[in-house]
């Protein structure tokens, strides 16, 4: 089955590009359209109703561009809105959730840490998953302020280091051996996080798993593109400077109101 329509990917801002990169690396012939709803970031402090409404707005934009499937490259939007999206739209959705399972199953100390937004950690979906791992102590930490600093291009600021230290030190003291990054913005913090964590603590994010799941959906449900090396498109509804720089200035970014 061939299908040359694009794969849509959205996030509250630029963080989902960490997921987009994994998809683009695995499926370079697929046309991708990335939507950064930076005007409304961060989603992490919003109510479920607001997150559902914003997610639907993003989906409507991507469907106008004929996307064959949509990747919700945002843990906050997935854990709060994917059920509603699946109920309301007739295309397959791929979501991203904190990777508790591989961390809990491989942990030797039976203590793992999760850094995510308030919206993700408070969601029913996240809590149902966490309940399945009763033998593991899960230390949950809201990453207050991190997304905003990333969106503002302040990745390497002293303020970022200070926040990360305050969130990670208690986890280190509690003897975690896995840290789950439960927000698609956070993989951009890995170099900084590695400076704080001792070497034996593994960092897990879900980018590659989402890319493989996207490949499965194309194989089973919507079809692969037969184009060669498609050029991705990027849309943002606020200043495009930070998105451009996180993409290493390799791609055009279109600023548009949506
Ligand atoms: N990148 C998002 C996530 O994975 C949302 C961050 C936010 O907007 O608060 O949760």
UniProtKB/TrEMBL annotation:
The active site is at 74 (proton donor/acceptor), 183 (proton donor/acceptor). The keyword Cell wall biogenesis/degradation applies. It catalyses: L-glutamate = D-glutamate. Substrate binds at residues 11-12, 43-44, 75-76. It comes from Flavobacterium cutihirudinis. This is Glutamate racemase. GO terms for molecular function: glutamate racemase activity. Provides the (R)-glutamate required for cell wall biosynthesis. The keyword Transferase does not apply. Belongs to the aspartate/glutamate racemases family. Keywords: Cell shape, Cell wall biogenesis/degradation, Isomerase, Peptidoglycan synthesis. It is an enzyme of class 5 (isomerase). The lineage of its organism: Bacteria, Pseudomonadati, Bacteroidota, Flavobacteriia, Flavobacteriales. Its EC number is 5.1.1.3. InterPro entries: Asp/Glu/hydantoin_racemase, Asp/Glu_race, Asp/Glu_racemase_AS_1, Glu_race.
């Amino acid at each position: 089955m061939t299908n040359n329509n694009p794969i849509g990917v959205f996030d509250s801002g630029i963080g989902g590009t960490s997921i987009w990169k994994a998809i683009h690396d695995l499926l370079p012939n697929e046309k991708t359209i990335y939507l950064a709803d930076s005007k409304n970031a961060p989603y992490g402090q919003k109510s479920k109703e607001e997150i559902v409404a914003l997610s639907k707005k993003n989906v409507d934009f991507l469907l106008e561009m004929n996307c064959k499937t949509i990747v919700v490259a945002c843990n906050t939007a997935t854990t709060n809105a994917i059920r509603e999206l699946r109920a309301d739209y007739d295309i397959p959705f791929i979501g991203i959730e904190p990777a508790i399972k591989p961390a809990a199953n491989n942990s030797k100390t039976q203590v793992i840490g999760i850094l995510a937004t308030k919206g993700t950690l408070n969601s029913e979906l996240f809590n149902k998953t966490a309940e399945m791992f009763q033998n593991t102590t899960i230390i949950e930490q809201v990453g207050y302020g991190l997304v905003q600093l990333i969106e503002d291009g302040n990745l390497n600021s002293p303020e970022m280091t200070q926040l990360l230290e305050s969130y990670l030190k208690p986890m280190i003291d509690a003897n975690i051996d896995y840290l789950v990054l439960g927000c698609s913005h956070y993989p951009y913090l890995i170099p900084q996080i590695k400076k704080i964590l001792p070497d034996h603590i593994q960092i897990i994010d879900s980018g590659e798993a989402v890319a493989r799941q996207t490949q499965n959906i194309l194989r089973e449900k919507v079809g692969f593109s037969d184009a060669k090396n498609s050029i991705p498109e990027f849309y943002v509804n606020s200043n495009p400077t930070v998105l451009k720089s996180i993409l290493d200035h390799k791609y055009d970014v279109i600023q548009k109101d949506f």
